[in-house]
Amino acid sequence: MDPQPTRDAAPSLTPGLTNDPLQNQSQGRLLILAAILFLSYLCVAISLPVTPLFVAGTLGLGNVWAGLGVGSAFLATILTRGFAGTLVDGGGAKPAVARGLALYIVGGLVSVAAGMLPHLPWPAFCVLVLGRLLIGLGESLVGVGVIAWGIGIVGPQRSGKVLALVGAALYGAFAAGGPLGLALLDGIGFAGTMAVGALLPALGLLAIQRMAGVPAHPGAKRPPFRSVIGRIWLHGAVVSLQGIGFAAIGAFFSLHFIHESWPFAGLGLTAFGVGFVLVRFAFGHLPDRIGGLPVAMGSLAVETVGQMLVWSAGDPILALAGAFLTGLGCSLVFPAMGREVVHLVEPHLRATALGAFAAFQDMAYGLTGPVAGLLADRAGYGSVFLLGGTAAALGFLTAFSMRRTRAAAGTRPAR
Fold first, then answer.
1. Which of 300, 302, 299 is nearest to 321 (CA)?
2. CA neighbor of 89 nearest in space, from 223, 219, 233
3. 30-39 tens-digit pLDDT
4. In degrees to the nearest 10, what's the CA dihedral of 406, 154, 283, 351?
5. Contacts 24+ apart (CB under 8 A), 201-204
6. φ and ψ of 3, to 5 deg
7. pLDDT tens across 190-208, in order?
8. Integer angstrom CA distances of residue 71 from 51, 132, 250
């Protein structure tokens, strides 16, 4: 069990800062790392709304292939989270992040090649999937590496804050990347948009070169990866069910608006991202303060309402409000359940456990695309968001059951 964070005798009047210069320095490094992550992750964010439009529209391959095009990156991430966690635990966070950013660049450049083959739909699609697989592998390394790097900077007792800030950077990138990607698509085409996506992580790669890394744990005894999954699978199930709502908005919100002939098709991810980031900054301390399960339960209830609102909306304003509520609800589920995971394992297994935990969310992202594409073909785009709301409700019930089991066993939440 990790020690409790100490309280400052006289709190600083500046939010996020204390009277401890060393702690303030750590906070500053964490904020710089989050800013670099935001800039680099725009590579992923700008591709998310434009990929289904390119596949279904320009290539004319339909909704299922559009969903597969989006989901292929998440599939690569799922399959490599364990590898990424082991690499971070044994070799250090900074080298892993650098490799991940390099893969972003290569994946972006391969996607540029796909955009130059619009007259050859199937070859273009295969090249695009290759590019997205490389981006997915890069995301595996960057995601786990940045979280481990942040926890190494400020300490495991503030792991909830690290997860909240990292998520704010990621989903802030989604909020900015949605309209940016669509604007670039209109202005310079798909190939040009992917070229911009390849440039941004190159800037991030340059920026991290001067940052100090954190110690690794080479040579420590490591149990089989499946045994780590066995300790955290329920936490992963909750975050997986939460992720379906976000994946639905990311892959099909724009297509839903276009099908309904509604304006503001590019603002779905923006509405989601604004709600997400607002909650992360205003209430990101709650998992560390009151525990992960209560925060996850409240969040999943809000996400359920948001997805149901998108499903039932008769105009674009209500649908955007539903996307905003979905962002509010999704915001704290990952850090809430993630901080529980951090305290379940030994320090030399944290990145491995977090990699396994994140893979559950990636699984939701990867499977939602093609499954929701089939559902959209048969029941319309609105049904995709009904699926997201149902999944969030199941996540709430799972978290509620975990809390009841913990109460019955007389155990206290990890602090």
1. 302
2. 219
3. 888 888 889 8
4. -50
5. 201/40, 201/43, 201/101, 201/102, 201/104, 201/105, 201/108, 201/138, 202/101, 202/105, 203/39, 203/40, 204/36, 204/37, 204/39, 204/40, 204/101
6. -65, 155
7. 999 999 999 999 999 998 8
8. 10, 9, 10
